[in-house]
Design goal:
The chain is an alpha+beta fold. Helices cover 26% and strands 28% of the residues. It contains 7 helices and 8 strands; from the N terminus they run αβααβββββββαααα.
Length: 247
Amino acid sequence: MEAFHWRFHPAAHRFKELLDSGELGKIIRTDAAMTSTLGIPAGDIRWQYDLGGGSLMDMAYVISFTRYALQAGTPEEVMYAKATPAAHDARVDKDMTATLRYKSSGNTETDVYSTIYTDMDRDWAYGLLPRLWELPSIRVETERAEMVFYNAMMPHLYHYIAIKTKETGQWQYESIYKGGSRWGQRGESYWSTYRYQLEAFVDRVRGREPVFWVDNEDSVMQMRTIDEVYRKSGLPTRPTSAFASST
């Protein structure tokens, strides 16, 4: 199973519940971003094309956030994609910006436009301050509200789900570290996203029904989306590994 551990945390389930409840109306657009303001060190595997390097590959959580919110597979179209090539290898993206057009499961008649942004060497604010506040997040606009899931990738460390209704303009915040509709009494507030995923994995191995799962088909759709963004940006897709091609 692919290690999109964040999807197993109670906060992710609460985020999806709020979207699926119908109280906020249909989704209109989404915006997801993930950056590294201190920069990934030179020589790291994330900068190496032959090892699947690139900001979109490493920070593909932005696509995972988007697809999870929309309960969608691959986009109808990658409308726009622009990458900044790394100085040492033009095949590797330092950053990537893209706009994708989806049909969400609850809004199949209307297009949903989603932007994504990744950056492995984000400029410092005013050239002086690291942007430590830019944790991986997704913003969702619906017919009746605007929602932010802040630090969606590692919600066990810190997160919030904020909703601003368009009618009142007031923000409401909530956080959840254990329990919820899926885990119930199971789990502890100190459990990491990885621990929650491990619990689901052990359940599956032992023949029990896991509370959540990421199947192989979902992982293939994730990678197909990544490939399409790379193609649209003009960069090559990441190479098939020598190990995979020899088996």
